Amino acid sequence: MDLNLDAPHSMGTTIIGVTYNGGVVLGADSRTSTGMYVANRASDKITQLTDNVYVCRSGSAADSQVVSDYVRYFLHQHTIQLGQPATVKVSANLIRMLAYNNKNMLQTGLIVGGWDKYEGGKIYGIPLGGTVVEQPFAIGGSGSSYLYGFFDQAWKENMTKEEAEQLVVKAVSLAIARDGASGGVVRTVIINSEGVTRNFYPGDKLQLWHEELEPQNSLLDILNAAGPEPMAI
Amino acid sequence: MTFTIPIDNGDSVKTAEADSQRTLYPYVTGTSIVAIKYKDGVLMASDMGGSYGSTLRYKNIERMKAIGKHSLLGASGEISDFQEILRYLDELVLNDNMWDDGNSLGPKEVHNYLTRVMYNRRNKFNPLWNTLVLGGVKNGESYLGMVSMIGVSFEDNHVATGFGNHLARPILRDEWHADLSFEDGVKLLEKCMRVLLYRDRSAINKLQIAKITEEGVTVSQPYSLKTFWEFKAFNNPTAGAEGSW
């Protein structure tokens, strides 16, 4: 079986950004693959740009890292010159600038999310090509294909922080169930006027979906447990 | 003289080297724009979809924007390139305003500028992957023109991009006439947009109609069109011929 260990590190990925009444919730899986091999099963795809703006990275791991490094650098200088925190819009636009002007070389889709005092919580999707789209919620990465229908049905405006985070965790978990390129843990980052909260949902603590079984330590535990009643009706 | 609008299928430009400054294929695309001249100016219609290959990924993209006081620009093709064109035009309009001489760019001028930009990019093998429709009114004169990604540019009484060229233009050739009222113009555009909705895979049922007159530009709120499926022939089409379609 050809694992193709020389393939570029790519984050198959599922990334999500959702606005709620007061801020945003960003979510992602944690799998980074090199061909068929999982190079990192606990990656952090939600990267900080400033105190109040984060970005979810998908596609080529290298490309997304270098783009966010550049933008973090630019935003740092911008914040010093501006004398106050950068806005989410400016952060998104800087990402767009790099993504658009290098569109032939980059292969990364990003979701920028954050909170600023002018516009509150905002999410900007920046797919391949460098289009910027402001959205109430955004999904990206290979796992997102499985979530279009889910969000069409489950999304609603003005959710609470708890509802929004639960929606994100459920969605990433569903995508992980069906997308081979997504997996591991679900990480979320909540950004609002009060600050930033990072959460971590390990893979084995997520809800089980269709044809998934409760994890066991060993078959032996099943065999040794009380047997079923014979011919029970 | 004939020309063909290139179809965005991702492999129309083949090049051996990974040349760093060539746009090879579009990613997020908008479908047709349809526009007509009418009594008071120009009417333009577009849906609000941004497709990502075959996925109807974005459903709230405004593909028609006002330019200065006298023009309306509609775009199909790669959305990121359209956003870049809007930035170029922002600069153009800003510089025009800075003269502060009472003059302002009319649709003819904007169309000409866009034609130059598109053709020059085409010559460098790095096109802006759009087909643009430029409509406007200045000093009582209506103007409607189109520029493609290879720099082909012309004016007409009615224009359409993409699928619209094949499905909407024939309807317009038949039913357009000078001095259409606003109501008749809107109904005509809606007739075209409905056909596109039935027959264009990348069309979505959420559209806007924009109007430009001497007074200025108005873009309507997004709305959906009713579609008709209750034909008897649609009910059991393969009844007499199982396996057919």
Automatic annotation (TrEMBL), chain A:
It comes from the Eukaryota. Its main location: cytoplasm. Component of the proteasome, a multicatalytic proteinase complex which is characterized by its ability to cleave peptides with Arg, Phe, Tyr, Leu, and Glu adjacent to the leaving group at neutral or slightly basic pH. The proteasome has an ATP-dependent proteolytic activity. The proteasome is a multicatalytic proteinase complex which is characterized by its ability to cleave peptides with Arg, Phe, Tyr, Leu, and Glu adjacent to the leaving group at neutral or slightly basic pH. The proteasome has an ATP-dependent proteolytic activity. It catalyses: Cleavage of peptide bonds with very broad specificity. CDD domains: proteasome_beta_type_6. Keywords: Cytoplasm, Hydrolase, Nucleus, Protease, Proteasome, Threonine protease, Zymogen. The active site is at T13 (nucleophile). This is Proteasome subunit beta.
From TrEMBL, chain B:
Transmembrane segments: none annotated. InterPro entries: Ntn_hydrolases_N, Proteasome_alpha, Proteasome_beta4, Proteasome_bsu_CS, Proteasome_sua/b, Proteasome_suB-type. It is found in: Cytoplasm; Nucleus. SUPFAM superfamilies: N-terminal nucleophile aminohydrolases (Ntn hydrolases). Pfam families: Proteasome. Gene3D superfamilies: Glutamine Phosphoribosylpyrophosphate, subunit 1, domain 1 (3.60.20.10). CDD domains: proteasome_beta_type_4. Keywords: Cytoplasm, Nucleus, Proteasome. GO terms for cellular component: cytosol; nucleus; proteasome core complex, beta-subunit complex. It comes from the Eukaryota. GO terms for biological process: proteasome-mediated ubiquitin-dependent protein catabolic process. Non-catalytic component of the proteasome. Belongs to the peptidase T1B family. Component of the 20S core complex of the 26S proteasome. The 26S proteasome is composed of a core protease (CP), known as the 20S proteasome, capped at one or both ends by the 19S regulatory particle (RP/PA700). The 20S proteasome core is composed of 28 subunits that are arranged in four stacked rings, resulting in a barrel-shaped structure. The two end rings are each formed by seven alpha subunits, and the two central rings are each formed by seven beta subunits. The catalytic chamber with the active sites is on the inside of the barrel. This is Proteasome subunit beta. It comes from Brassica napus (Rape). The gene is BnaA09g16030D.
